[in-house]
Amino acid sequence: MMQGIIGKRVTMSDLNKKAFDPINVTRSSMPSFEEYCEEIRELWQTRWLTNSGVKHRQLQSELESFLGVSHVELFTNGHMALELLIQAMGLTGEVITTPFTFASTTTAIVRNGLTPVFCDIDPNTYTIDASRIESLITERTSAIIPVHVYGNICDVERIDRIAKKHGLAVIYDAAHTFGEAYKGRGVGSFGDASMFSFHATKVFNTIEGGCVCFSDDRLCEILPALRNFGIKAKDEAEYCGANAKMNEFCAAMGLCNLRHVDEEIEKRKAVVEYYNERLGGIKGIRLNPVQPDVKSNYAYYPVVFDEKVFGAGRDAVLEALAEHGIMARKYFYPLTSAFPAFNGKYDTSLTPVALDVSSRVLTLPLYADMTRSDVDRICAVITGINGEVTA
Ligand code: T4K
């Protein structure tokens, strides 16, 4: 059920009045206040607020069915899920990954004492260019950690073949792909394991939260221990773990949001289709079509500008939108390999496609209850820049 209004198109003169509320890059999906209160009511009786409580266990089991995977383990956020998963899998040496991602992917690798080896991305999907992986494998390589970016799924079949041939583990950063499927199979079931983020800004949120999906039963023992200080039984830490447990209030938010997530994705789809209608014909703007065989979750709306053809570059568009209260974001600029945290250790020119896309991409606002007039307002600024002002 779209709440969107089929509004009249917004003109540049309307925009100049600046009489609009800000539009952020996204807005959290939430259940009704009453639904959430009902979900947390029993916590006032049980006083069991964290440490694998009832809500935690219920969400874990509902997610296993929803995602179509053998095992789910919940964490306090997606980042800790990934970091502890890497630890649990005992990776060593070098890990092949991409720099076109959020800080989390690369820092999870580095904080495990591993060396990220950056592979370039595919110019159409922005995910790892699987044809380049084999040339980066050395005797120190233990794994591939690709990222499903914006809801675009990596070339999972080719990555699987390469990993099998070279005896490498595969962990997907699937932070952006909750609820997606490839050829009818849940995206979390590819590779050895996948991490989903349930951050407030994601398609499905638990306020803060995340999970790991996997099929290897051996991980069922170590992952819960690692998120609980490394303690397996009582009192003694068997592993060097962390505190990364999901609390009951977050799990309760997840139980509520899970009831509505299919409907939320449908609403996102309608927003994306309307954006595509408005921006589709404009020269110099590359949209992000849904890939063949993919059931998309419409997580983000990235557009890539060709300055020479469009007449303005990404930064100029970002500025113009901001002047009208529209907060688009440069996900992902700069590349993680250029982060000051890594002291110039990595050469960004070795991933030229990633470097180029990152200098030209802009993520436009997208959330389930965005209206058509919100989209009109955003597109009017963009078309206004290149002279295609609506009448
Ligand atoms: N891997 C990848 C590929 C990722 O993209 C991420 C996270 C991770 C791993 C790690 O997963 P987590 O550990 O986060 O579970 C945001 C998110 O914090 C982050 O989760 C996300 N990726 C990243 C792409 O975006 P910021 O710094 O851009 O968020 P912020 O605070 O500027 O929020 C953006 C907009 O969202 C705000 O303008 C308004 C809206 N918003 C924000 C919050 C916090 C809401 O509507 N409600 C909220 O509660 O990082």
In short:
This protein is α/β, with parallel strands linked by helices. The chain has helices spanning 12-16, 33-40, 43-46, 54-67, 78-88, 103-110, 156-166, 219-226, 248-279, 307-310, 314-323, 352-360, 372-385, and strands at 71-75, 94-97, 115-118, 141-145, 169-173, 181-182, 185-186, 193-197, 210-214, 285-286, 294-295, 301-305, 361-364. The strands form three sheets. Strands 1-9-8-5-4-2-3 form a seven-stranded mixed sheet, with helices on both faces. A three-stranded antiparallel sheet has the order 7-6-11, with no helix packed on it.
**Global structural class:** alpha/beta
Arithmetic mean pLDDT: 94
Rounded radius of gyration (Å): 22 Å
Number of strands: 13
Question: Span from first to last CA?
Answer: 30 Å
Low-confidence stretches: 1-8
Shape: globular
User: Largest beta sheet: what is the strand line-up?
Assistant: 1-9-8-5-4-2-3
CATH class of the largest domain: Alpha Beta
The number of helical runs is: 13
Q: Could you estimate the helical fraction of the residues in percent?
A: 25-40%
Ligands and ions found: ligand T4K
CATH topology title of the largest domain: Aspartate Aminotransferase, domain 2
**What is the number of domains?**
2
Relative strand content: 5-15%
* Biggest sheet record: 7 strands, mixed
Question: What name goes with the CATH superfamily of the largest domain?
Answer: Type I PLP-dependent aspartate aminotransferase-like (Major domain)
